[in-house]
């Protein structure tokens, strides 16, 4: 028990291995690039020096709007059901306790 009182855990090791590492593909790509450089073949891909920037902003806004509309519709129907249920229960309560109506 006394040994646990002064126990300090050691630091945890961080080791990450790449998930999709294919050394054969890297060798093949390097070899193809070397051959293309020797033959003077230019890739069709033109690099203008600008970093790649995907157009994600508009896609998120569109999807949020779609979900907001469907959730708003679900909320509205839920509220309508609740109001109708309360009205029916109020009517039944009134007829049962305050009316001369007998079953």
Structure description:
This protein has 3 helices and no strands. It is an all-alpha fold. The chain is elongated and about 105 Å long. It has helices spanning 2-5, 23-39, 57-97.
Task: Spell out the key features of this protein.
mainly alpha
Strand content: under 5%
Helix-and-strand structural type: mainly alpha
Q: Write down the overall mean pLDDT.
A: 78
The helix-strand sequence is HHH
**Tally of alpha and pi helices:** 3
What is the global morphology? elongated
Radius of gyration: 35 Å
Largest sheet: none
Helix amount: 55-70%
Number of strands: 0
Q: Segments where pLDDT lies below 50 for 5+ residues?
A: none
Cα end-to-end separation: 74 Å
Map the helices and strands.
Elements: H1 2-5, H2 23-39, H3 57-97
Would you summarize the structure shown here?
Helices cover 60% and strands 0% of the residues. The chain is built from 3 helices and no strands. It comes from Maribellus comscasis.
